[in-house]
Amino acid sequence: MGSLAPLLPGTVALVGGGPGDAGLMTVAGRAAVEQADVLLVDHLAPKEALAWARPDALVVDVAKLPRGAFTPQERINDLLVEHARSGRRVVRLKGGDGFVFGRGMEEFLACTEAAVPVRVIPGVTSSVAVPALGGIPVTHRGVVQGFSVISGHVPPGHPASTLDYGALARSGTTLIVLMGVATLPEITEALLRNGLDPATPAAVIARGGHPDQQVVSGSVADIAVRAAQVGPPAITVIGEVASFAAAADANVTEEVI
User: Fold this and answer.
1) CB under 8 Å to 255, separation ≥6 — which residues?
2) pTM score, whole prediction
3) Hey, how many other C-beta atoms are within 10 angstroms of the C-beta on 159?
4) Would you give the end-to-end CA distance of the chain in angstroms?
5) Which string of b and e fits 94-103 if b means at least 16 CB within 10 Å?
6) Which residue among 21, 37, 61, 64 is the active-site one?
7) Which of 42, 94, 197, 212 is catalytic?
8) Burial of 49 per CB tally in 10 Å (0-12, 13-18, 19+)
9) Which part of the chain is the Tetrapyrrole methylase domain (predicted)?
């Protein structure tokens, strides 16, 4: 079924909301929001997009705040299935793309296992878009030929971490860290310990795609200190391309705005 086909009763649409501003959502994503009977909305979903919803649509906040309010994923899965089985058109609205550290596949499987029709409407992933909004390309001809996107929600050495920081330090790719505000000191220390040049450029982009977007630039050796006052959501870029932050437009500064 095409992404712009009508959303049928009893169907779930998993919609990626893009990197902040509702104007960066896809046409298909907006169409799904406009048709929804029920919207299950994440903390990072573009709230302005809710203005497109029908006045009688039920909006359910299922936020997962860092070290704050938390809706268990199992409960979200149950709500998707329950509302769809009641014959409602259900939209699961998230920020970025729900299949990049967004548990989108967990929700997809919950629907398919319950025999609930489910449609995926991808969003623009913040891992690429937010650096671009901060004036940083994740690749650049003659500079770098690839990028690696990692989750920083647990620090290096944590039992739940599966990342090889030695391999990342040697990869020669741009390193993009999502969900790594609190663990940035440990992440940068692990990269330095594994041989990454301390002078490697780095930048943190906070609230990318919003009017109060902030960019802090420095090197991998000092970016954790420079960005100490930045709160989530924020994305860290480590690699030669991060030096482009200094040449970007007025939204990009070397200190927190």
Assistant:
1) 216, 226
2) 0.90
3) 6
4) 45
5) bbbbbbbbbb
6) 64
7) 42
8) buried
9) 11-223
Q: Which tokens go with 154?
A: 């647990």
Q: Where are the domains of the chain?
A: 12-121, 126-247
8: number of Cβ within 10 Å: 12
Predicted local distance difference test score (pLDDT) of residue 254: 40
Q: What is the mean pLDDT of residues 194-199?
A: 98
Instruction: Verify whether residue 164 is a known catalytic residue.
Output: no
Q: State the DSSP code for 51.
A: G
* 108-154 tens-digit pLDDT: 999 999 999 999 999 999 999 999 999 999 999 999 999 999 999 99
CA gap 91, 50 in Å, rounded: 11
Secondary structure class of 38 (helix, strand, coil): strand
| Structure token digits, residue 39 | 């919207």
The CATH H-level superfamily of 126-247 is Tetrapyrrole methylase, C-terminal domain (3.30.950.10)
* Active-site annotation holds for 37: no
Q: How many CA atoms lie within 13 A of 103 on its CB side?
A: 15
Give residues with Cβ within 8 angstroms of 97, minimum separation 6: 16, 104, 122, 123, 124, 125, 126
Phi, psi of 187 (to 5 degrees): -65, -50
